[in-house]
């Protein structure tokens, strides 16, 4: 089997209401859908972040992928995104989409799900966290989450609708004392749920330690990226030893894993098959963490169904996946895969059992949301449109 064509389609799908976070606001999710065709008539699917830079990566890699055998992933990786060259940084996100597609092709050719060609699953379903954001109201005037009461109500809706047993509170939007009170309110409303906190490095070390001490008696599952960089994270870890620290911002690549262990930076590495350059590489990172007794969770970057399926297959083969993965998926209003959005049952998603990634494109939906993407003119991140001219700086507090 040889690769004969690679094409990609940008798409933008609206979400229930614009999400707020430390850097700005999301009005919707922008992604690129990748299709890799072969001389045997099979088409593998991939997905990555939206934006012109990712399209540039794909355009650069396309001619290098033509004629290759999708089973020869190591050869392809060294050819397209060699870790000893600048291509590692430049192409890793786009390469991940191509790796997903090659694994999808392998699974289709063998009649096996991706997780089974990676050694076999250790779980059949994956629990996810409810991803709680502050939100602006949508154009219809609904969905606003701007205070603690609205945040708790939003969490109650998500738990009722999807059955989540873990809550992730995305903060770093308001001053820390306000968000401390919000966390306590969530804990009082959900005494048995796991609750994690993520300010996206909006704090200094001093602020992070103060918040950790104030929340010591409220059973925080973990604090994710309170500060920026491994040295600062290690200082927080040293000053608040009872705190469980997690990261996808300070530790997000292979070269981070050794210093992470040496510096005692954190307790939970949040893997991402996009950031690590594919499912196979993220699994390897998870195995390295396993060797050093480090737990893993999973980061979410506003996935559509193809990437969500890739996350499920990765989660299926990670024995040390202790923390429920994060997912923006419940914020989406639609998807570009056949059958509509993947479904939560009691806060969990089933690992796909069909060949390859186990999802197929709905071409009418893809055309619809591609058209919408031409009007949005945005990549993966956006400044807050309701605070024009505001300069995002970190740390804020």
What does this structure look like?
The chain has 12 helices and 13 strands. The chain is of the alpha/beta class. It folds into 2 domains: 3-115 and 363-376, Enolase-like, domain 1, CATH 3.30.390; 119-350, TIM Barrel (Alpha-Beta Barrel). The strands form 3 sheets. A 7-stranded parallel β-sheet has the order 5-7-8-9-10-11-12, covered by helices on one side. It has a 4-stranded antiparallel β-sheet with strand order 3-2-1-6. Strand 1 and strand 2 form a beta hairpin. The radius of gyration is 20 Å and the shape is globular. The model has no long low-confidence stretch (mean pLDDT 94).
Q: What's the CATH architecture name of the largest domain?
A: Alpha-Beta Barrel
Strand content: 15-25%
Number of domains: 2
- CA-atom Rg in angstroms: 20 Å
Low-confidence stretches: none
Q: Describe the biggest sheet?
A: 7 strands, parallel
CATH superfamily of the largest domain: Enolase-like C-terminal domain
The overall average pLDDT, rounded, is 94
Number of helices: 12
How is the largest sheet built, in terms of strand order? 5-7-8-9-10-11-12
Roughly what percent helix? 25-40%
Category from helices, strands and their pairing: alpha/beta
Order of helices and strands: EEEHHHHEEEHEHEHEHEHEHEHEH
CATH topology of the largest domain: TIM Barrel
Q: What coarse outline follows from CA principal-axis ratios?
A: globular
**Could you give the distance between the termini?**
55 Å
Count of distinct strands:
13
Kindly provide the name of the CATH class of the largest domain. Answer: Alpha Beta
């Amino acid at each position: 089997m040889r690769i004969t064509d690679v094409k990609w389609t940008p798409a933008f799908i609206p979400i229930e209401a614009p999400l707020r976070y430390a850097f700005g606001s999301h009005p919707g999710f922008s992604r690129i859908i990748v299709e890799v065709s072969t001389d045997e008539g099979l088409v593998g699917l991939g997905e990555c972040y939206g934006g012109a830079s990712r399209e540039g990566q794909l355009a650069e890699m396309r001619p290098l992928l033509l004629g290759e055998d999708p089973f020869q992933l190591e050869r392809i990786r060294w050819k397209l995104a060699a870790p000893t060259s600048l291509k590692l940084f430049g192409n890793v996100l786009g390469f991940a989409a191509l790796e997903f597609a090659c694994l999808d092709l392998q699974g289709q050719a063998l009649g096996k799900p991706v997780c089974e060609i990676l050694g076999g699953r250790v779980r059949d379903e994956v629990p996810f966290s409810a991803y709680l954001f502050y939100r602006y109201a949508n154009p219809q005037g609904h969905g606003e989450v701007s205070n603690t009461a609205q945040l708790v109500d939003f969490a109650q809706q998500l738990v009722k609708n999807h059955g989540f047993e873990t809550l992730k509170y995305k903060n770093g939007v308001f001053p820390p004392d306000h968000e401390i009170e919000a966390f306590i309110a969530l804990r009082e409303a959900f005494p048995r749920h796991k609750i994690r906190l993520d300010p996206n490095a909006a704090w200094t070390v001093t602020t992070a330690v103060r918040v950790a001490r104030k929340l010591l008696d409220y059973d925080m599952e973990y604090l994710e990226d309170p500060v920026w960089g491994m040295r600062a994270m290690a200082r927080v870890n040293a000053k608040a030893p009872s705190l469980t620290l997690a990261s996808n911002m300070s530790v997000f690549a292979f070269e981070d894993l050794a210093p992470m262990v040496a510096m005692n930076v954190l307790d939970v590495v949040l893997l991402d098959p996009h950031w690590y350059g594919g499912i196979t590489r993220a699994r390897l990172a998870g195995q390295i963490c396993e060797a050093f007794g480090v737990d893993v969770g999973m980061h979410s970057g506003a996935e559509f169904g193809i990437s969500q399926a890739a996350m499920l297959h990765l989660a299926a083969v990670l024995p040390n996946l202790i923390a429920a993965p994060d997912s923006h998926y419940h914020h989406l209003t639609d998807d570009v895969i056949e059958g509509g959005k993947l479904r939560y049952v009691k806060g969990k998603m089933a690992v796909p059992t069909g060949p390859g990634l186990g999802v197929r494109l709905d071409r009418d939906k893809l055309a619809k949301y591609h058209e919408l993407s031409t009007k949005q003119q945005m990549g993966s991140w956006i400044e807050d449109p309701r605070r024009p001219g505001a300069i995002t700086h970190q740390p804020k507090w």
